Amino acid sequence: MSTVESIAPVRPHSDHRPIALLAAALLAAVAMVLGAAVAGPADAASAAVATGKPDKPGKPGGGGGTTELTYSALGDSFASGTGAENYIDSTSCDRSSLSYPKVLDADATANVKLAAFPACSGASTGDVINSQVKAIPRGTTRVTLTVGGNDLGFSDVMTWCFVIVWQSRCNSYLNTAESLISTGTLGARITSTVNAITAKVPKAKIIVTGYPLLFDPASGYANAARVNTDTEALNAALKAAAEGAGAVFVDVAGPFTGHGIGSGAPWINGFSDTSIAAHPNQAGNLAYAEAIRSALG
Length: 297
What we know:
This protein is α/β, with parallel strands linked by helices. It has helices spanning 24-33, 41-45, 77-80, 100-106, 125-132, 154-163, 167-182, 185-200, 224-244, 282-293; strands at residues 6-7, 69-75, 112-116, 142-146, 164-165, 205-209, 248-250. It has a five-stranded parallel sheet with strand order 3-2-4-6-7, sandwiched between helices. Helix 9 (224-244) links the parallel strand 6 and strand 7 (248-250). It is globular, with a radius of gyration of 19 Å.
């Protein structure tokens, strides 16, 4: 059995489940860091957005009223805005007022009104299908979806490859993630997720986003290059599955270039605060919104 090679300081986070390996107190803090919470049906139902937001002005000659498109935001912690903090509810979903769905909702040029926001930290494709799709209002015409990372064991990879560096475990989780991509398993799950959304709102335009490469080449982390390469493979699988199912794919890796962990101006949180580590910060969520905006039309 391998020994633990290094241990990074971890801040306790009482909302998440402990990992039943090594010292329980240490791993209870680590496990929750990277989004182990999953919304159940009641949580997803509670994600309906309040309708107190005033309508944006109609277009000239449009006779007044709103021209906004009804919008629902689904997915995992990258969609809920975990890394930007400023959470707007008391659930473990970590939905942020600075998340990219809320940024788009507040942006007059995006022309969307956020009607449902069931995205939740820790969500997998199965959670989206089983818990989040049912929260989409029937009149929704635009849906964003950021999901797939948790299907590949995102939390385990971040924990064992970067927070607690245990290389044999790190390799095992990365091998599993790579297999899920290369065998088409992840792509099939994305196809099923898009199909479930289409079944609920057949006329909606569905926008599937990719993930940024988490690490700058200068980050110095031993496993960073492999994780970035795997993220590129993940994005390729997401793009193929999304477009094959009739959705639109939006790449965010390009806009995040030069802004990964270890860069001079990171848009992704490092590991000094493990409750938000490896997630886009406020600037990163703004970059997501900018990348998505043109696809909403």
